[in-house]
């Protein structure tokens, strides 16, 4: 137990000098992201870019798949880690226009661990692997780009041609995709 | 004058009965003392965070219990819908600061008290402000704000050779209500479970899979989330982020949600539901607030005077059906990101000579740490700074030059904290630098 009354007397008597300067303590998010970034173990198809090395909360992830439908493509994701990390997932957007059943044309990504299945034990590394997996195994069951999902479900050949067309830069259906081959 | 004195004597008679004599239910270490009354009347400043439903009750309770020096902080203004339960406010006060109106009301109504209002966010105040209080009581509706004040109080703790200095502890009494349910808890930062230790007790925010929202909505909530998550950023109707308090914004979301619901034949989208989904509104019940505030105020009194054993340490209350309370002891989490981060002290003989690479060598080579490849960051003037990190090539390249700089050249001051992350430990370690030659002139 603590005796507040006598404590306050003690405090007055031996007034400890306040620490020098305005030293804000690092937040829980900062503590955790330092660890996450220091231990990032990227597959060889992935790379990161930190526009400001002092800001570990804002960065880009570049995925260049070496197999599957999206081989030879180059896809950029932006990561924003909020003050509530790791209790809230990082905000991830796809900056490259991509013809993909689980990524829409505004860059929203449908990946369970980025929303409903996020848990604080997951790390930035988990998200990187999750995103990489989306390119290896696009999932027509959970569509965000419905047209792409329908094509993938009905005819993989046509889907493959469409992906190639989009990555080389061109129209698929009524939508124009920027070239994103590396 | 004599009359006044007599009245004053009488006024606290009930408190005297508790504080100036022993009793069978007292704290085993309670020492009855007439100075205790003077202490709570004159030199026990309390901060109330939040001047809403709980805050009004807390302020009234504490001031009538003898705490005459109270500060109250709230960033909100009074709304018509507050008046049914936030009884310090009147219709004429709508639009004014909650903290200011509450303080003025009590100062006018109760003699001899000095309530000082702060019309701002808790984040606008720094540690020198919070350090002045004997205790802090929260009546908040936000988890973010609770975590912030919790983090602040933990950061005020001081350690001597790894042992917590009890003089640096500011107890936190936290109340919360949601409809007919409520809870009250006592937190002794550094000693008992903190807000962060028990964060998973809060219900998770309900989220729906993005693809369901986008393609296969089934619930009215899916339609509202669609308007909020997908349509708002895309159409950006007012060129500002969505604000749940702006009726124009809520109206827009309502309209778009209805369209969506019509398209998929989903019933149940109402304006009220839209408000609920985008603002997470929970109806407030005046009696629950009164009960929880009463419990919190009692705890404040017990801790301040040591007259009874305080709540240990988490009480839940529910009067949906009859009345139910249950108290249990929430446990401190061993690897809590906030309160288990006892900073290790690293003594530096001469910061003008010590280079960053020597510190890193210390972490990797000394038998105490044996790290593999530590990454080091710090906070300078409230901004984060990466000192060195070898894991990421682009960061390594741009921080490599720091290795040969001395601590002074890196702007690291005496007493500052560096964060050290390494694969060999589950948590980031906090290391406080202690300079032997403390009078080093900073450039």
TrEMBL record, chain A:
Residues 1-28 are annotated as: Disordered. Gene3D superfamilies: Ubiquitin Conjugating Enzyme. PROSITE patterns: UBC_1 (PS00183), UBC_2 (PS50127). The active site is at residue 110. SMART domains: UBCc. It catalyses: [E1 NEDD8-activating enzyme]-S-[NEDD8 protein]-yl-L-cysteine + [E2 NEDD8-conjugating enzyme]-L-cysteine = [E1 NEDD8-activating enzyme]-L-cysteine + [E2 NEDD8-conjugating enzyme]-S-[NEDD8-protein]-yl-L-cysteine. Pathway: Protein modification; protein neddylation. Coiled coil: none annotated. Signal peptide: none annotated. Its EC number is 2.3.2.34. Keywords: ATP-binding, Nucleotide-binding, Transferase, Ubl conjugation pathway. InterPro entries: Ub_conjugating_enzyme, UBC, UBQ-conjugating_AS, UBQ-conjugating_enzyme/RWD. GO terms for molecular function: ATP binding; NEDD8 conjugating enzyme activity. Residues 28-172 form the UBC core domain. The keyword Transferase applies. The keyword ATP-binding applies. PANTHER family: UBIQUITIN-CONJUGATING ENZYME E2. Belongs to the ubiquitin-conjugating enzyme family. This is E2 NEDD8-conjugating enzyme. It comes from Henosepilachna vigintioctopunctata.
UniProtKB/TrEMBL annotation, chain B:
Keywords: ATP-binding, Ligase, Nucleotide-binding, Ubl conjugation pathway. The keyword Zinc does not apply. Coiled coil: none annotated. One of its GO terms (molecular function) is ATP binding. One of its GO terms (biological process) is protein neddylation. InterPro entries: E2-binding, ThiF/MoeB/HesA, ThiF_NAD_FAD-bd, Ub_act_enz_dom_a_sf, Uba3_N, Ubiquitin-activating_enz, UBQ-activ_enz_E1_Cys_AS. Residues 348-436 form the E2 binding domain. It catalyses: ATP + [NEDD8 protein] + [E1 NEDD8-activating enzyme]-L-cysteine = AMP + diphosphate + [E1 NEDD8-activating enzyme]-S-[NEDD8 protein]-yl-L-cysteine. One of its GO terms (cellular component) is nucleus. It comes from the Eukaryota. The keyword Oxidoreductase does not apply. Its EC number is 6.2.1.64. Pathway: Protein modification; protein neddylation. The active site is at residue 211. Belongs to the ubiquitin-activating E1 family. UBA3 subfamily. Catalytic subunit of the dimeric E1 enzyme, which activates NEDD8. This is NEDD8-activating enzyme E1 catalytic subunit. It comes from Henosepilachna vigintioctopunctata.
């Amino acid at each position: 137990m603590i005796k507040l009354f006598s404590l306050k007397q003690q405090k007055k008597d031996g007034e400890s000098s306040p620490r020098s300067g305005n030293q804000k303590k690092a937040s829980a998010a900062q503590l955790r992201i330092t660890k996450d970034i220091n231990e990032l173990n990227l597959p060889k198809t992935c790379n990161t870019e930190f526009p400001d090395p002092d800001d570990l909360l804002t960065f880009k992830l570049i995925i260049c798949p070496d197999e599957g439908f999206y081989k030879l493509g180059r896809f950029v994701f932006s990561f924003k880690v909020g003050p509530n990390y790791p209790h809230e997932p990082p905000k991830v957007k796809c900056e490259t226009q991509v013809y993909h059943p689980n990524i829409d044309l505004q860059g929203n990504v449908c990946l369970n661990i980025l929303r409903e299945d996020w848990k604080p034990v997951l790390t930035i590394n988990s998200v990187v692997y999750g995103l990489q997996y989306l390119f290896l195994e696009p999932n027509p069951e959970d569509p965000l780009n419905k047209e792409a999902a329908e094509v993938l479900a009905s005819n993989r050949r046509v889907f493959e041609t469409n992906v190639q067309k989009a990555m080389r830069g061109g129209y698929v259906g009524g939508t124009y995709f920027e070239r994103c081959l590396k | 004058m004599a009359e006044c004195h007599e009245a004053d004597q009488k006024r606290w008679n009930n408190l005297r009965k508790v504080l100036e004599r022993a009793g069978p239910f007292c704290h085993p270490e309670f020492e009855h003392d007439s100075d205790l009354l003077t202490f709570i009347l004159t030199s026990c400043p309390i901060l109330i965070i939040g001047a809403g439903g709980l805050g009004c009750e807390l302020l009234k309770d504490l001031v009538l219990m003898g705490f005459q020096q109270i500060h109250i902080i709230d960033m909100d203004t009074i709304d018509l819908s507050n008046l049914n339960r936030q009884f310090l406010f009147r219709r004429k006060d709508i639009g004014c600061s909650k903290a200011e109106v509450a303080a003025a009301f009590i100062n006018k109504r109760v003699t001899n008290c000095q309530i000082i209002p702060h019309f701002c966010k808790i984040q606008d105040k720094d540690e020198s402000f919070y350090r002045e209080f004997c205790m802090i009581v929260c009546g908040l509706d936000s988890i973010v704000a609770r975590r912030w004040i919790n983090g602040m109080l933990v950061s005020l703790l001081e350690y001597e050779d790894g042992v917590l200095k009890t003089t640096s502890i500011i107890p936190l009494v936290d109340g919360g209500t949601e409809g007919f349910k409520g809870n009250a808890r006592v937190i002794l930062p550094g000693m008992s479970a903190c807000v962060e230790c028990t964060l998973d007790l809060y219900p998770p925010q309900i989220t729906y899979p993005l693809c369901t929202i986008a393609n296969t909505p089934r619930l009215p909530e899916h339609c509202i989330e669609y308007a909020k998550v997908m349509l708002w950023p895309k159409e950006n109707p007012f060129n500002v982020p969505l604000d749940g308090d702006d009726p124009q914004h809520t109206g827009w979301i309502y309209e778009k949600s209805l369209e969506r619901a019509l398209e998929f034949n989903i019933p149940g989208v109402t304006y009220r539901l839209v408000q609920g989904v985008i603002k997470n509104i929970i109806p407030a019940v005046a009696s629950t607030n009164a009960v929880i505030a009463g419990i919190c105020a009692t705890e404040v009194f017990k801790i301040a005077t040591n007259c009874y054993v305080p709540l240990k340490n988490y009480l839940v209350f529910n009067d949906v059906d009859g009345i139910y309370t249950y108290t249990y002891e929430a446990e401190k989490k061993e690897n809590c990101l906030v309160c288990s981060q006892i900073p290790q002290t690293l003594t530096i003989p001469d910061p003008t000579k010590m280079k960053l690479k020597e510190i890193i060598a210390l972490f990797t080579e000394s038998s105490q740490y044996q790290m593999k490849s530590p990454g080091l960051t710090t906070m300078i003037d409230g901004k984060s700074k990466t000192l060195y990190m070898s894991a990421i090539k682009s960061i390594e390249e741009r921080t490599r030059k720091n290795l040969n700089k001395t601590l002074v050249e890196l702007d690291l001051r005496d007493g500052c904290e560096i964060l050290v992350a390494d694969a060999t430990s589950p948590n980031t370690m906090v290391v406080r630098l202690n300079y032997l030659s403390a009078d080093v002139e900073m450039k």
